[in-house]
Amino acid sequence: MLRIIAMELTNKCNIKCVQCPQDHLPIEFGFMTEEVLRKCLRFCDGYTELNWRGEPTLHPELVRFAGIAKETRPNLRLGFHTHGLMLDKAMFQDLVRAGLDWLHVSLHTVRSCEQYKCVREWNEELGSPLFVYADTDSTQEKLVALSTGLNLKEFHHDQYANWAGYLTGNRIVQQDAASIWAQCPFPQQSVVIAAWDGSINGCCWDFQGKHKIGHVDELETLQHSGPYELCPKCIWVRNYESLPV
User: Which of 62, 114, 176, 198 is the most interior residue, by most CB within 10 Å?
Assistant: First the structure.
């Protein structure tokens, strides 16, 4: 049976990053409800994210939903990816109390870099209950991070991705879709993503929702059906160490 590896609390975001197509997607935007969250939790186990296409800290129930997730499924390795701009010390402490396990800050802006420093300080003050880490998506972001005083040992900078063609004008960059599909961890590990409205998606780069394979209400009967349209456009190399996966 498929496992939900990420629950998209919202697909809304309040910044515009060069590499991200989220700002001009022809999709409906919204926030996950508690009903959908609880349905999704039935299919979560181990490593679980509270985001996908959007910024999770925009969800007004983020802290409460994190608490519901850990109370319902204590075995979750729960966290989320964020630009960090909406985080403050009080919210961070509330998330720790709710049972969050890890937090990833994307160093897209100077403000994100400064927020990452704050997050690490808040975490240390509490005895480092969370696994906190950060990364950059490009050489430009790497230089921004360095300019704020971060050194190369304080963030990851060894990921290479083309966001399934979004960074290459959607040109075909891989001819053998089947081989790309065979290497993808989603079909290999039978994992999927739940969007804010409960729809189930089989591809982590599918921002437009082309590869919806059903709804959480029918997840017990769903299967991956690749290779997907985005497979021949996908390049993703990750060589991280010590990530909570």
Answer: 62
Given phi > 0 = left and psi -120 to 50 = alpha, else beta, which region is 141? alpha
Q: In sequence order, what are the beta bridge partners of 47? A: 77
The DSSP output letter for 175 is S
This prediction's pTM: 0.91
pLDDT tens string 18-27: 778 877 778 8
Instruction: Output the CA torsion 23→48→102→63 (10° steps).
Output: 70
Supply 225's token pair. 């059906």
Dihedral (Cα; 160, 9, 4, 22), 10-degree rounding? -40
Three-state secondary structure call for residue 131: strand
> Is the four-CA dihedral 157, 160, 163, 167 of positive or negative sign?
positive
CA-closest candidate to residue 193, choices 184, 205, 201: 201
Dist. CA 245–CA 62, nearest whole Å: 21
pLDDT reading at 243 higher than 70 = no
Q: Which of 58, 53, 43, 47 is nearest to 19 (CA)?
A: 53
Q: Which two tokens stand for residue 234?
A: 């996908």
Give the HSE-up count for residue 198: Cα atoms under 13 Å, Cβ half-sphere.
Answer: 14
Does position 173 have pLDDT exceeding 80, yes or no? Answer: no
Per the DSSP assignment, residues forming a β-bridge with 10 are 31
